[in-house]
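quick q for whoever's on today - can somebody do inverse folding on this one?? i tried earlier but teh output was garbage lol. tokens:
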């Protein structure tokens, strides 16, 4: 799921004109060594925090049917996660970096969700909304200054981007439906069993001469009343 969110963000930023203008969109950690090797204008979308949204955790399971309407699998509900990205712009001059960052900000705040046409893999199959929260507040993720300190880099202008995405549930195959009954064979001792007779799952039929079921079952006759001592003879 994480790599599918990355691909959706790359496509979203690419549609804003970054790729057409020769700007690279990468998902590397912006460490000091990485910044020294960079040679082209770059927008870096670095994932640094992953947390489950436990409030949205569901229970039970859903059923999956094939084209004939047969139950083929059971699937647990998806679980939702918040992915937090640190978005930065890299160029030779601060003015150019701010221009790139402004372009990225305008693209991200123009939509609250990743468009369905940009989703791939399981995100596209689930058909659920992938939400975006740009430069929002109230996140429990580490502060940007802590991230820069952990990577050994110098603090610079950045955007915080949170993505709420579903992780597909676990699918377990179901047993195939029962289509035939048991086979019953009756033999004498020492004899080989014959082909037997197949029982069908029915409650209102009686067996025919060929082992099949032909019609409604008749109620058996009531048992004869036992004569008691003292009863008058007819």
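ok took a stab at it. sequence:
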């Amino acid at each position: 799921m994480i790599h599918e969110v990355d691909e959706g963000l790359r496509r979203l930023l690419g549609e804003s004109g970054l790729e057409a203008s020769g700007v690279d969109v990468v998902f590397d950690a912006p460490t000091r060594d990485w910044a020294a090797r960079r040679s082209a204008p770059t927008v870096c979308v670095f994932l640094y925090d992953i947390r489950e949204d436990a409030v949205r955790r569901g229970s039970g399971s859903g059923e999956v049917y094939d084209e004939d309407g047969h139950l083929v699998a059971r699937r647990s509900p998806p679980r939702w996660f918040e992915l937090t990205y640190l978005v930065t712009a890299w160029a030779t001059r601060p003015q150019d970096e701010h221009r790139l960052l402004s372009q990225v900000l305008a693209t991200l705040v123009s939509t609250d969700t990743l468009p369905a046409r940009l989703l791939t893999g399981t995100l596209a199959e689930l058909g659920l909304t992938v939400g975006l929260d740009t430069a929002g507040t109230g996140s429990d993720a580490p502060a940007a200054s802590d991230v820069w300190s952990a990577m050994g880099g110098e603090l610079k202008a950045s955007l915080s981007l949170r993505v709420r995405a579903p992780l597909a549930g676990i699918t377990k195959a179901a047993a195939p439906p029962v289509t035939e009954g048991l086979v019953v064979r009756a033999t004498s001792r020492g004899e080989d069993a014959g082909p037997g007779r197949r029982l069908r799952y029915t409650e209102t039929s009686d067996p025919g001469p060929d082992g099949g079921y032909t019609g409604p079952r008749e109620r058996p006759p009531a048992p004869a009343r036992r004569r008691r001592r003292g009863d008058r003879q007819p």
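fwiw The first helix runs from residue 2 to 15. also Residues 211-216 have pLDDT under 50 and may be disordered. so keep that in mind when u check it
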